[in-house]
Amino acid sequence: MQNIQFIRTDLPSISDDLAKHGWSVREGYFSPDLCAALLDDMRAQEAAGKLTSAGIGRDRAQKIESGIRNDRTLWLTGRADAPRRFAALMEELRLALNRDLFLGLFEYEAHYALYPPGGFYKKHLDSFRGARNRVVSTVAYLTPGWREEDGGHLVLYHPENDALPVQKIVPRAGTLAVFLSEEIPHEVLPPLRERVSIAGWFRCNASVAGRVDPAR
Ligand code: OGA
Ligand code: MN
Questions:
Q1: Per the structure, how many domains does the chain have?
Q2: For residue 132, what pLDDT band results from cuts at 50, 70 and 90?
Q3: pTM of the predicted model, to two decimals?
Q4: Chain segment 163-180, per-residue pLDDT in tens
Q5: Which atom of ligand 1 is nearest to the CA of 137?
Q6: Which of 85, 123, 156, 188 is the most buried (most CB within 10 A)?
Q7: Alpha-carbon distance 82 to 103, whole Å?
Q8: What is the Cα–Cα distance from 211 to 97, expressed in whole angstroms?
Q9: Ligand 1: residues whose CB is within 6 Å?
Q10: Is residue 78 classed exposed, middle or buried when 0-12, 13-18 and 19+ CB atoms within 10 A define those classes?
Q11: Which CATH number do you get for residue 200?
Q12: Is 116 exposed, middle or buried, given 0-12, 13-18 or 19+ CB atoms closer than 10 A?
């Protein structure tokens, strides 16, 4: 008898999940090797004093709001090997989302985020008032050996009811969370250990009347 191998075509893609729920979670999206290389890159820059307290909002509206979040961040520049490999994977995802969902995603920006033990980021949306150009948010987790009891979950809430949690994500190295920036309220619960992620955003081009959309 012929040995027929079935290829599962029924597994939902990130695009399917986004269209249906507004969010998607993939464990093991990034290899342990890439996570370790990104973590090393972040640590080297941290040692050089490059991480800064995170702000809320863009440009002049930006201010440090330690009551809302208390992580420290650094934009990825993509010059080193690990951020370059990460950017290549995100570029593949951008093309897939544009192909499947016609989102017109134009570019990607991302930063390392380091949460101290007890750190947090209270419930928020990732879109900014007056600059509705962050369309899809991504969060990649880098800390190896993360256990459920280490806390630091990312909690996603229902798009129409921000009191209704729909998913609690363990920030385990290799996991990728993807969600609609303007639709999905979310928060970071306090971790017991230092927690490292890369938060990123696919943006559409919001340039108007000859004014080039500022990158951030
Ligand atoms: C953010 C954010 C989530 C996380 O930086 O906007 O929501 O799990 N981060 O790090
Ligand atoms: Mn966010």
A1: 1
A2: low
A3: 0.88
A4: 999 999 999 999 999 999
A5: 6
A6: 188
A7: 27
A8: 27
A9: 113, 121, 126, 139, 154, 171, 186, 188, 197, 199
A10: middle
A11: 2.60.120.620
A12: middle
